[in-house]
Amino acid sequence: MSVPSKPVRAAGCVLWRRSPADGALEIALIHRPKYGDWSHPKGKLKRGEDWLPGALREVTEETGMHCRPGTELPTVRYVANGRPKEVRYWAAEATGGTFDPNIEVDRLLWLPPAQARRILTQERDRELVDALLEAVQEVGRQ
Fold first, then answer.
1. Positions of the chain with pLDDT lower than 50, given as ranges
2. Other Cβ atoms within 10 Å of 71 Cβ, number
3. Considering only the top CATH level, what class is 8-141?
4. Would the pTM of this model clear 0.90, i.e. be above it?
5. Which segments of the chain are extended strands (E)?
6. Separation of CA 95 from chain center
7. Domain range list for the chain
């Protein structure tokens, strides 16, 4: 009988900002050439690293953006390369920074939510757009 392997721990953010043009909400999506996909910035935690610091580190490494974390969003669980993976996400508002393409992430797009939903490769990432919109609305009501 095989022992189930511990999930790979990863964390990331659904990064958002207000458009400089009209103040509408925009979501950052990254393109990873290794996988040919569009996703939210995320990555594996380092040994001993806590979830939120890991999520913020990954956002900075992959997008060059600094951000203010907000509400924790739903945790996503799936199997990757035959191993269970658990990814915790936070809503995070971009506060500045500059994107520089690199070997891991070659493109960053800021898109309205409906367009972001269409471009995201994985269905599980589309559901995070809805969770972000709900979280941002809740903050606006307080």
1. 1, 142
2. 16
3. alpha beta
4. yes
5. 8-18, 25-32, 37-39, 42-44, 65-72, 76-80, 83-97, 107-111
6. 15
7. 8-141
